[in-house]
Amino acid sequence: MPHKTVIVGGGAGGLGAAGGVKAANPEAEVVVYTEFEDVAYSPCGIPYVHGKEISDFEKLFLATKEQYVKAGIDVHYETTVTAIDPKGKTVTVEGEGRVSYDTLILATGFDYADPGVPGGDLENLYYVKNIRKAMEWDKVLDSVKTAVVIEASPLGTEMTTSLAHRGIETHLVDPNPWPLAEMADPDIMAPVEESWTEMGVKAHFNTTLKGFLGQGKVSAVDTSDGEIPCDLVVVATHKVPNARLAADAGLKIGSTGGIIVDERMATSAPGVFAVGDCTEIPHGLTRVPLQGLTGSHAYAQGKAGGNNAGGGSRTYKAVYVPWGTPAGKWVIGGASFGETTATALGIPYVVGQAQGISRARYYPGVKPVKVKLLAEPGSLRLIGAQMVGQEGIKERADFLAMAVKFGFTFHDLAAMENVYSPAIGALNEPIVVAATNGLDELRKAGKL
Amino acid sequence: MPHKTVIVGGGAGGLGAAGGVKAANPEAEVVVYTEFEDVAYSPCGIPYVHGKEISDFEKLFLATKEQYVKAGIDVHYETTVTAIDPKGKTVTVEGEGRVSYDTLILATGFDYADPGVPGGDLENLYYVKNIRKAMEWDKVLDSVKTAVVIEASPLGTEMTTSLAHRGIETHLVDPNPWPLAEMADPDIMAPVEESWTEMGVKAHFNTTLKGFLGQGKVSAVDTSDGEIPCDLVVVATHKVPNARLAADAGLKIGSTGGIIVDERMATSAPGVFAVGDCTEIPHGLTRVPLQGLTGSHAYAQGKAGGNNAGGGSRTYKAVYVPWGTPAGKWVIGGASFGETTATALGIPYVVGQAQGISRARYYPGVKPVKVKLLAEPGSLRLIGAQMVGQEGIKERADFLAMAVKFGFTFHDLAAMENVYSPAIGALNEPIVVAATNGLDELRKAGKL
What we know:
Two copies of one chain form a homodimer. The first copy, chain A, is α/β, with parallel strands linked by helices. Chain A has three domains: 4-39 and 77-111 and 240-309, FAD/NAD(P)-binding domain; 125-237, FAD/NAD(P)-binding domain (3-Layer(bba) Sandwich); 323-444, FAD/NAD(P)-binding domain (3-Layer(bba) Sandwich), CATH 3.50.50.60. In chain A, 27% of the residues lie in helices and 27% in strands. The first copy, chain A, is built from twelve helices and 26 strands. The first copy, chain A, has helices at residues 12-24, 46-50, 65-70, 131-141, 154-166, 186-198, 244-248, 295-309, 339-345, 393-405, 410-414, 430-444, and strands at residues 4-8, 29-33, 73-76, 81-85, 90-93, 97-100, 103-106, 110-112, 125-126, 146-150, 169-173, 202-204, 209-215, 217-223, 226-229, 232-235, 239-241, 259-260, 272-274, 279-282, 289-290, 323-327, 330-336, 350-357, 368-375, 382-389. In chain A, strands 3-2-1-7-19 form a five-stranded parallel beta sheet. Chain A has a five-stranded parallel beta sheet with strand order 9-16-10-11-12. Chain A has a five-stranded antiparallel beta sheet with strand order 22-23-26-25-24, with helices on both faces. In chain A, a hairpin with a 6-residue loop joins strand 25 and strand 26 (382-389). In chain A, helix 1 packs parallel to helix 8 (295-309). Chain A is globular, with a radius of gyration of 23 Å. Chains A, B: It comes from Pseudonocardia endophytica.
């Protein structure tokens, strides 16, 4: 009997899963339901089209609808799944009724947290998500003079940078003392804040959102710092897992609101898998569950979960979270966690840091790279890292996440060899200098 | 009694060593002898000034002579050391006579291999090394229409690219079938060769140098491929360790011609250390001795050896050789060794490779990145890697050298998380794809 897998959600997780099922079982019937008009575009690119770094939305499409047909993946567009029944092995689809499956994969993604203030029904509140809507919003942006971004979340940080780059007067409202406060340390974000100021951004930190004001259309944002007149608001509150279908069906939900999965991406219900932003995944060191990871994580989880749903056997392990993004005129990034998170979790650490450079200091285009490494006292095993610079942040973040995972110590990193070639790398790799400085500090303090 | 360290050589190794001695013992007397007019400049930058990527030679100076005086490092310029006497603990210095020391550090660098053909005494044969001479040669280059580069060594590769970039008709003569054949694989170099052709370079591979022709000044190079008329020849033959002083004093010399050192950078003579290009260092996996490493290696060896010479205790271990350089319109790099070297050494391997990209494929500035990984059959531990691309090659090479050193497997690399942010990294990291492809190939072949 042919195997049938139903997938709810057409984002990176859902499509990764579709490919995973087919990889494990090329004969499997794979049906994907999505509420949207499209699949296989990059939502992560939307802020950069708004910012005019990318010339048009068409570039964000990665595959045509025909390609999925050819691959044997049956995508039902603009179709909502309203319920799942793991016991009966069916999903309820609007307009299709009950549809049966052999295995089910939930890839229902995330929602933005409700800002929970009055005025949420006004026009010109922009929640960045769907590419078709983004195309319409992009036309609106042509006539926007002043915009307010709510929260310096990862998306809020990108949108602030993009709107300022586009020439819109941009205000950023955030309740924390510095941007991206939940993941990045203030010393890492300080250059970003400076560059935003240079770009004309008006940042309002330690500032609480009180409401959206206006008649029909938003005309101002009310905050603890006063009213900010504006033509448009980008609501970039933090992501919360969209786990409604799972919760309604009695699947186990974790402390973050994400669906609990095991290393096979299997939920608590037999035959039901979940991947991407609707799940929560433990941090590799702390085992604290995390949600709101990246499209790259969603895609990898999709491949693993899809493979298992198709009869294969793949695991997806706890995460060490390399991250990075442009912010203002800088690129920030890191792996695992920084000082702020470590302190909040009560995790002791020692620091090694360095202000390095990306090329020989005389080579055109050389940029600063600040590296901060956190290690466990005593063992000096790396437990986290944060960086601010321009070149090579992504590649260093990828490496440092592996360094955390495999327990590299300050000694290991201080003894690391590095490429030296004036146009592409400095005599001293900043990671090596940071680890060396960390050891020197410990020596001076008599702790080594 | 105050401690006195004599250092012979003022390059990256010698100056790293001077700093190392002072770090271990700030009171130590440190005397550096150099044959040249300067120290503390970057010889690695010279090709890029010739190529006009860097505007002038002054930029290559990293520190002033006064800074060394202030740091308590006594540099004797244009001063030749003619002999060392490890038993008597003296060196013989031209114009100074016998000078005593407590510890001695040899940092005598390298020479270019003698091309061993007639005509070596003609004018306009340029050996790239000393910055003052480079300044003079740069003026000569203004009137050069056609140049020949002898050997596609690392320097030859850089000089070929730079001279072509400067607009000089450049011929490259090399006895091997492809450039950098001693370190890089032909598939990695193929795009470089193509881009050289686009830049107007005339490459002569499988071509033996027979002599330099001309009256007083070189006017042609004689090769197995015929005569190549030219105004100037860059002799970029491979580096050989300059170990004459050490050999004359009976210190142990290795199979490469480099001074043999232990992990403290100590030679076979008590109290005598050696660092940088005059030494040989074992490869971490094969234990085959290597010479001709980079300025970054020399500097790190200098710091370790200097520290030990000053009474401290530091080790410098076997190397895994991350490398990288611009070449033509590309950047090439890798870690440990490639297929060519593995085959030559009789080391069995399996391959995983991928043609990836450096950013989201729709993001402006996205570049291809080809990654090839070599692993030990069975264990699938990484033993080498080679890459050709543009962005992030240096950082990936640094990481991959650590991956070889710490025995990461294809499984580890295939499960690696990666940053995804359109402007700085693609959904799928090319290293991850290469490892995944390697595993897929093995599965298909029934070997996994």
